[in-house]
């Protein structure tokens, strides 16, 4: 009888620990910007001029049958990334694409084509970004981020 109680106790402890591991998650955050204010930078056509991300990852126990380590890292719903991509120049007009990502996936509704006339000003503004264009051609753009 004593053996049966110990066996039952071990099973209960195993189930409780398994439930705890599956429900417990560790959280890490990443806040990264690809630029420094007032620092000269350049980007080729098709490359990201500016990228800023605020991503929170949760590490969940999924079991060794589903992952070599038993854990899976998932970006949370509030994870966010945005970027401005230089897409070239035509006469005095520079073209920039804006993209937003949520949970590392591009959001089609948050994709926007922007056009700026350098003949009127070499300062371009989008949302909180204020950028001074130093040089732009059909190969690359050189700029400074003045504010974000």
Question: Would you give an account of this structure?
Answer:
The structure is a single chain. With 148 residues, this protein is mainly beta. It has a domain of 89 residues. Helices cover 15% and strands 59% of the residues. The protein contains 1 helix and 10 strands; from the N terminus they run αββββββββββ. Strands 1, 3, 4, 5, 6 and 7 form a 6-stranded antiparallel beta sheet that branches. The protein has a 4-stranded antiparallel beta sheet with strand order 2-10-9-8, with no helix packed on it. It is elongated, with a radius of gyration of 25 Å.
Quick tags:
148 residues; mainly beta; 1 helix; 59% strand; 4-stranded antiparallel β-sheet
Determine the oligomeric state from the structure: single chain
Which regions contain 5 or more consecutive residues with pLDDT less than 50? 19-23
Could you give the order of the helices and strands? HEEEEEEEEEE
Q: Largest sheet, described in full?
A: 6 strands, antiparallel
Helical segment tally?
A: 1
Structural class, judged by helices and strands?
Answer: mainly beta
- Gyration radius, in Å: 25 Å
How many beta-strand segments? 10
